[in-house]
Amino acid sequence: MARTWLIVGLGNPGPRYEATRHNVGQLVIDELASRRGEGFRTHKAGARVVETWLRPGSDKLILAKPNSFMNVSGGPVSSLAKFYGVDPERVVIVHDELDIPFDSIKLKSGGGHGGHNGVRDVAKALGSPDFPRVRVGIGRPPGRQDPSDWVLDPFGATQRQTLPHLIGDAADAVEQLVEEGLVAAQQRHHAPRG
Length: 194
Prior knowledge:
The protein has a single domain, classed as Rossmann fold (3-Layer(aba) Sandwich), CATH 3.40.50. Helices cover about 35% and strands about 20% of the residues. It has helices at about 25-35, 75-85, 115-125, 145-150, 155-180, 180-190, and strands spanning about 5-10, 40-45, 45-55, 60-65, 90-95, 105-110, 130-135. Strands 2-3-4-1-5-7-6 form a seven-stranded mixed β-sheet, with helices on both faces. The radius of gyration is 15 Å and the shape is globular. It is found in: Cytoplasm. Belongs to the PTH family.
């Protein structure tokens, strides 16, 4: 039986933030929409959404990018989950992760927020931390740069060369999570790159 999944890319709104590390989750959502030839429309929940399918006749995907700032992502996510009748275990949050090296992806479900304010706000708004996460590694800043400045900077020139592959891999991870489950997606995407 086909299920509905809410796939949300966290980030900040507006052109100033589009290409920043903090918005890598939204870049993954853009890739998932692009693979399906779909464009976003405005939703009353305060987000831009695409209603589509994993594959024709299979699970329904609601791809979403909140219009709110990262730290208050919970309101739009919770509103969308209620609107589409999606339980937390099928709300997939795609977000940047400082504690994972750049060009790596980790998946998990539940647990703490690891200091990520967007994830913290989503857990609070959903009333549960038990939702799957696709964590896209952006690495820690070099030297003494403040992490809060680092996440709001664009990717550097060297990283921009690899970024399309990272975004593609993260989109693959979302699709595999939906189709085959968390463990299968972890087994594939946690393996060292060869």
